[in-house]
Amino acid sequence: MVLLDAGSTAELAARARAGLGDVLGSDAAVVGRAPGRVNLIGEHTDYNGGLVLPVALPHATYAAAAARSDGTVRLASAQEPDPFTGHVDRLGPGRATGWAAYAGGVLWALREAGLDVPGLDLYVDGTVPLGAGLSSSAAIECAVAMAVVGLLGLDVDDALRARLVDACIRAETEVAQAPTGGMDQSIALHARAGTALLIDFTAGTHETVDLALDDRTILVTDTRVSHRLTDGGYGSRRAECERAAAELGVTTLREATLEAVEALTDDVVRRRARHIVTEIARVRPTVAALGAADWSALGDLFAASHASMRDDFEISTPELDLAVATAVEAGADGARMTGGGFGGSIVAVVPTAAVRTVVGAIDAAFARAGHAAPAHLLAEPSAGAALVG
Ligand code: ADP
Ligand code: MG
């Protein structure tokens, strides 16, 4: 059994500081921390004006930073081999590439937002698995943003957090060129421990949802089939949703009715839109099921969501389908794939007493099917980005 440990904040902040010293020869002035996330329901709905319900993970990314007076930007990561060197005036689209687009892109976007970002040395380390659908991308962006805010000595209130969300979205969509919708950055910056975040992308609002999990555990299983959001699958789904909205004469699919969607002539466009409309309709009932500890209702909602992603949106994989089916057979209340799809992770709500059984059953099923061993983690609902040193 591979169980990914979140690590302690103090130890990981110290590790990031030590990395900055060892690799770039700088003394850290600040350490920013931002969590990965798992989305409970509402998949691909953020860019359709919909509802999402993510939870921040205890697993996070840490960015240790020191300001420089010469405008030079040096970036290094414990998770990626190639360091980056550039200049703070030249970090926009096309300048910082590869993993450095995520970190450098934030520095550019914060400058565009009017912050007086200095040159800096920055070192990243953490425990969010990369490319697992658990938003390591927003975790690195938001950790870097927090580090910059720390260097500038700004007061981190809700208004500043909202500006940081926008800057991190610009870094991801314009510099890293991954056309994602904003859920990941919102949860990384606005999460509160013990809660999920219900985000409404039409109203532009978010509210915390208390999670009375009692004897239940949120289990995440990373299938270790790595997805790539920049590969085209995510972008083509987004384009199909935009086509459906245009044909229906609505700004986003949030405004579309299921009846109108069923009348769309193109089979693929109709099924894509059906997923979005039905998935948005499952989010508030999921909030209600969680609030009432109605695990049977939650299981039905997760099952319908997974089937919709597998059959209508076509973003699942054999590994994700196997993990979901096995989790439910082994005693999970509900399970579904989570994140952008084409690989990545599943999320399951499991009676705490059955977690070991469920994990063992998934491991055994993967071994029998000849799949690589999956990795599991316990998604204790955690706090959002902060300065930690
Ligand atoms: P996900 O967000 O689901 O983990 P993405 O494809 O959106 O997957 O983002 C993963 C990419 O983000 C990595 O390939 C890498 O470029 C960058 N990244 C994330 N975390 C780190 C890190 N700790 N160090 C360096 N790059 C990172
Ligand atoms: Mg991502």
From TrEMBL:
The keyword ATP-binding applies. Its EC number is 2.7.1.6. Residues 25-66 form the Galactokinase N-terminal domain. Residues 288-366 form the GHMP kinase C-terminal domain. The keyword Kinase applies. Residues 102-190 form the GHMP kinase N-terminal domain. GO terms for molecular function: galactokinase activity. Keywords: ATP-binding, Carbohydrate metabolism, Galactose metabolism, Kinase, Nucleotide-binding, Transferase. PANTHER family: GALACTOKINASE-RELATED, MEVALONATE KINASE/GALACTOKINASE. Belongs to the GHMP kinase family. GalK subfamily. This is Galactokinase. It comes from Nocardioides eburneus. The gene is galK.
